[in-house]
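Take the subject:
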Amino acid sequence: MLATLFVSTMNAQNAPQLRTDNIDEVLSAMTLEEKAKLLVGGANNFFSEGAVVGGEANLVAGAAGTTAAIPRLGIPATVLTDGPAGVRIDPTRKGTDQTFYATGFPIGTCLAAT
């Protein structure tokens, strides 16, 4: 058990941290489980017993989910919106006069239809 903890700690210390110039290195360092977590998402994380759907609206009004963060590699969680129905992130929020913006990524089903 102690040896496993030591190896895990050493691997975490030697892991590359995500930057714009080392994406291939980070992808190579990711485990199969970490890659699957990015596809499954944060709230629907089937690798955990505490998965709860619907809490993202507390983070960002109009949110539909999150990706799972992978702190070992410096990969943050990303808040998502329901893209096929349109980006519905609310640009204004209670308690702030700041305006919030969203990035609309291409939707696979829409790309396939073209």
User: Anything to note?
Assistant: The chain is about 30% helix and 5% strand. The first helix runs from residue 2 to 14.
